[in-house]
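User: Can you predict the 3D structure for this chain?
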Amino acid sequence: MTMPAVTSVIDYEAVASSRGGRLGPLREVWPLWPGLVLLVLAFALPLLLIFPESVSVKGRLSTAIYRSIARDSYYWSVIGRSFWLSLVSTLICLCLAYPVAYYLVRVVRPSRARFAYMIVIAPLFTSAVIRAMAWLTILGRRGIVNDALAYLGLIAEPLRMLYTEEAVVVGLVYIMIPFMVLTIAAVLENVDGTLEEASRDLGASPWVTFWRVTFPLSVPGVLAGCFLVFALCLSSYVTPALLGGGRHKVIAMLIFEQFMRTFNWPLGAALACVLLIATLLIVWGYNRALSRRFTTRHRVAGAAA
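Assistant: Here is the predicted structure, written as structure tokens:
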């Protein structure tokens, strides 16, 4: 008497499992749909509107704007300055952030780590405009640095630190360094500590252990942090505009001027597309570097096996 009921339950479960198997991929990606919709509306759709504007000259399809950008040394100098400032800022962030991330993960006690992380992320709760404005009072001719140097008798007259490339780098490093610290710390937390202990047990010094074990395992975090900081610096507008005083233009400032001041939308759209292509090339190079690294590691592991 109970067999039909059991059979119906089994059939129902079989049908449900078969439907779940067919809908498995959709079930796995459904949490991504809100983010995908946001990316399409806020990123892909504006690009679809900007790119046609950059290849349209008096209503006709033309690449004249891109050719003019390629031939004009002024645009190349602005793009080169943007890449140079971003690269220098990224390297300085890496040198400063890695010891901080290592200290947070390996030295600070877990009970105090949360307070240390709060100190790192505290500047992110303040607007980038306010943080850049603070450096105006620090690096100004009557700022804290010049007043301190004059009080110590190290300078006879105020130094010119504002509206220079160095001031822009200082502002970018200050604003971007929390991203580098958090990215590297997230990877260091997943590094197995027993590997470091095994290295020390085999007689390696702490310095050798760091360079032969810890740092190689943290390279993905270093690459991810460098990519993130470099991309943010390359597209930064507020900090170069305030601390550079308009004297040292970067590509983000040039794009803003074309759209909002000269109302040259085709040129602004073309420069925005150039910036996007440069960023995509960085992403491609980052993924290529990671794939090569892991491919080499798997080959070495397979050969050793």
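The two ends are 59 Å apart (CA to CA). The chain has one domain: 45-304.
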